[in-house]
Amino acid sequence: MKSNLTRRAVIAGLAMAGTPALSRRAAAELPQPPHSRTICYIGGYTQHGPPGGSGNGQGISVFEMNTDNGSLSPLMTYVDIASPSFLVISQDSRYLYALSEIDDFNANHEGCVTAFSVNRKSGELTKINVMRSGGAVPAHLSIHHSGKYVMVANYMGGSVGILPIRPDGGLGDPTDVVKNTGPRMPDRASDNPPGNFAVSDHSGSHVHMVASDPSGRFVLACDAGLDRVYVWTLDLHTGRLIPAAKAPFINMTPGSAPRHFAFNEKGTMIYILGEQDSKVVAATFNAQTGEIIPQQTVSTVTPHFRGSSLAAGILLSPNGRYLYVSNRLGDSLASFHVNDDGTLNLVDEIWMHADYGRSMMFDPTGSFLFCANQRSDSVTSFRVNAATGELQFTWNFTPVGSPTTFAFLNTI
Fold it and tell me: Which residue windows are coiled coil (predicted)?
């Protein structure tokens, strides 16, 4: 439809200028504007994965998204990478970084991060280099707000690694590796859903997510093993983390296993997801001091739910009015309304139509929500009603071995 409108506009413009109207065939042969495509990268667990966690994936699978119905069509797969369980694309869309959730990259039992350059027209990836992550079994990575560093959460290593980004997009050796310590916490939280037999590993520090706040002033990390959220500043010259002066960490509910967090656009509210007790803590965030002050705790399952559940992913809608959480084991997606004061109301909990949904991500327009279903070896999509936050299942199933993560790109 876009190309037809363009041809008509060209013909009308020529006619107005006194030029004879072109034939339909001649108009079709005019140069057309480039067609932007939406590319979706999906990673997950391969046969070479974390101890006891191997999967059915092949590497990084690349798809083209149908923006009308949310379906994904396969384009290519990059197999020369082990268990790329988390991906992130640079703000300028020139580079993609993928961690490998392994513990045997080197003799120190570390994982690694691979840097790729991105062809903005085709979506093809070209490997630049591979760098150690600073700890074993990395589970999450993000790019600092400044664009100068990749930050890695090493789950089994109990550490945060800071990797400098070179001018060519490749990664340098970590400038800092911070290891957390603290008292032994219970494997289960006291505020569990009724009948929850699932446990989270509290044998030591297990950093599950690291990212900067929207201003870039602070770096935060969820430690699911120590039940803490840590807060640092990052020295952009040395690449070293400095504990926040006023509140270097906040203790969460013992046993709750804080896994991921999401900020509102202004950076005044942070939503912290507890894996083990399937709860979201809505808290204010002081952008000057990094202080986190909890205001509310809400369940990600409805009161009638009984059984085992482990919350996994948390996602705030582009308009900031709705928040979504994936519940593993319970196989549900919870949707919350965000009130004017930042607190939450649970609106609905729907079946995700698959097993063990982990991360979620919106397409670039926010029209569709995609869920990576690790045990179902599939990706499912839901149409998002921007006015009500309602999720409507599209009935699109995309086969992907042990998927865990997404990254989207609009080509040029």
Answer: none
